[in-house]
Structures are given as C-alpha cells and as structure tokens.
TrEMBL record:
This is Protoporphyrinogen IX oxidase. PANTHER family: PROTOPORPHYRINOGEN IX OXIDASE (PTHR40255:SF1), UPF0093 MEMBRANE PROTEIN SLR1790 (PTHR40255). Pathway: Porphyrin-containing compound metabolism; protoporphyrin-IX biosynthesis; protoporphyrin-IX from protoporphyrinogen-IX: step 1/1. The gene is hemJ. Catalyzes the oxidation of protoporphyrinogen IX to protoporphyrin IX. GO terms for molecular function: metal ion binding; protoporphyrinogen oxidase activity. Binds 1 heme b (iron(II)-protoporphyrin IX) group per subunit. Its EC number is 1.3.99.-.
C-alpha cells in the first residue's frame, strides 16, 4: 500500500511538470513568427505532452491501486469523492492542452498570450484544492 502510494505521488509530480509548463510554452509560442523557432516550439510541446500523459496514466493507475488496497475505507470518504471530481476536471484540462497543442502545430492558434497566462493558473488552483483534501481530509 505504501509502495503504491509512493509511486502514485511520483507520477503526480511528473504529471504536474507538464500541466504547469505546457501552457507556459504556449505563452511564449503565441508571438513566434519565425518558422524554425515555431518548429522548435512544436517539438518541445509534443515531447513534453508525451511525458505529461505518462504522468497522468501513472497517477490514475497507482491512485486507483491505492484506493483498491482499502476500498471499504476510501469509498466511504467524502474527501476522496471530491478529490476524484477535481482529478476528472484536471484530466479534462490535460485533454484541452492537447487541442491547443494541435492548434499551434497547424498554425491556427487564435488565443492570446494573456489567455494562456490565465489558463496556466487552473492546475495551480486544482493542485492546492486536492492537496488540502488528501492531507486535511475536511469531510
Ligand atoms: C487519478 C486519480 C487518483 C486516485 C484514484 C487517487 C487516490 C488516492 C488514494 C486512495 C490515496 C491514499 C490516501 C490516504 O491514505 O490518505 C492517495 C494519496 C495521495 N494522493 Fe491521490 N489519487 C488520484 C490523483 C491524485 C492527484 C491528481 C493528486 C495531486 C494533485 C494526488 C495527490 C495525492 C497525495 C499527495 C497523496 C498522499 C496523501 C497522504 O498520504 O497523506 N492524487 N490518492
């Protein structure tokens, strides 16, 4: 159980590296006009997205494995249900990043630098809320 939890947290960290840094790359990518620089950004974004997806899959696998080690306790915990709801939102945000990555690759991004700066805060807020739920367990 503790091994599963340790691996769970390892993949959470790997997932968040990309959730934090991909939108930041988009912020810098918005104003790029030179083709070679544009191509370099596309490669960085694609590779980072792959690593981020591995982080997400590992988080789900080891999170669910931790849950299945003691389902009778966890399934009765309100904080875990709230956490899972936020993790589903986070996974949706991950999918949205993929749609933006495609838009940049096809040179049809229409969003501003400011838009990506604001969206960059979404994983921060969700991370804080999830950490409070798992550590404080308020309900
Ligand atoms: C993907 C679905 C997820 C599932 C099914 C899941 C499930 C779990 C379970 C059952 C525990 C053990 C809780 C305990 O014994 O106190 C746990 C621990 C933890 N989870 Fe998740 N989790 C998921 C995603 C996440 C995410 C996205 C984060 C961070 C944003 C996260 C952060 C943590 C942390 C920090 C702990 C350690 C808490 C502690 O031991 O005090 N989890 N998770």
């Amino acid at each position: 159980m503790l091994w599963l939890k340790a691996l769970h947290i390892f993949f959470v960290v790997a997932w968040f590296v990309g959730l934090f840094y991909l939108p930041r790359l988009f912020v810098y990518h918005v104003d790029v006009v030179e083709q070679s620089a544009h191509q370099r950004f596309c490669v960085m974004e694609r590779r980072l997205y792959t690593m981020t997806t591995i982080g997400m899959i590992g988080t789900w696998i080891f999170g669910l494995a931790t849950l299945m080690a003691a389902p009778e306790i966890y399934m009765k915990s309100g904080w875990l249900h709230a956490k899972l709801l936020l993790v589903v939102l986070l996974s949706g945000y991950h999918g949205w990043l993929k749609t933006r990555l495609r838009a940049f690759a096809e040179q049809r991004n229409s969003k501003s630098e400011r838009f990506y700066r604001v969206m960059n805060e979404v994983p921060t807020v969700l991370l804080l809320a999830i950490i409070i739920l798992v550590v404080v367990k308020p309900f």
